[in-house]
Amino acid sequence: FMVKAEYDNGVMMFTSGGYPNGIRYEGTEGWIWVSRGNYQASSSDPVAKNNNSKALDASDPKILASQISENEIRFTRSDEHHGNWLDAIQGKAELLSPVEIGHRACSVCLISHIAMKMGRKLAWDPVKEEFINDPEANSHLSRPQRRPWGTDYVNA
C-alpha cells in the first residue's frame, strides 16, 4: 500500500507497506530511517520475514554523526512519554507535546487507514474534521458505542 498526505505548507508524508515498523525522513541533504529494527511488540506487528532492518540508518553515515547546533530546532527528549502524560493529568508536569499536536499526529494515521480501506483518494477538511463531499468515507470516522463505555453516554 501507499498513502500520500499533502499538507497546506507543502510538506508531503508517504506511508508505505514497504517500510514496516519504521519511518523514513527525506530532506535536501539525504534521508534518515528510524525503526524498531527486528523488534516486534506483538505477533501482529508487520515485520517482514528475514527483516534485517537497522533501527537507525541514513543515506550518508555522516548525517547520523552530525551535531545539532545551538541555533537549530531541538525537540524535547522523553524516555517515558506515557509517564509524562499521566504526570500531566495529575498536575505534576507540563505535557511534552501539546494535545493539539498529538490529536493531529493521530488523525493523519486514522485518515490514512480509512483511505486504505476505501481504496481511493480522499480529501480531508482539517477545520471541519471530515472528508469533503464523501459520506461513505465519513461513515468510517466513528462507530456505534456500547453502554456504559463511550463518550455518547457521559452525563446521559
UniProtKB/TrEMBL annotation:
Highest taxon of the lineage: Bacteria
Protein name, per record: Putative dehydrogenase
Region (Disordered): 136-156
A Pfam match: GFO_IDH_MocA_C2
Domain spans labelled Gfo/Idh/MocA-like oxidoreductase bacterial type C-terminal: 76-150
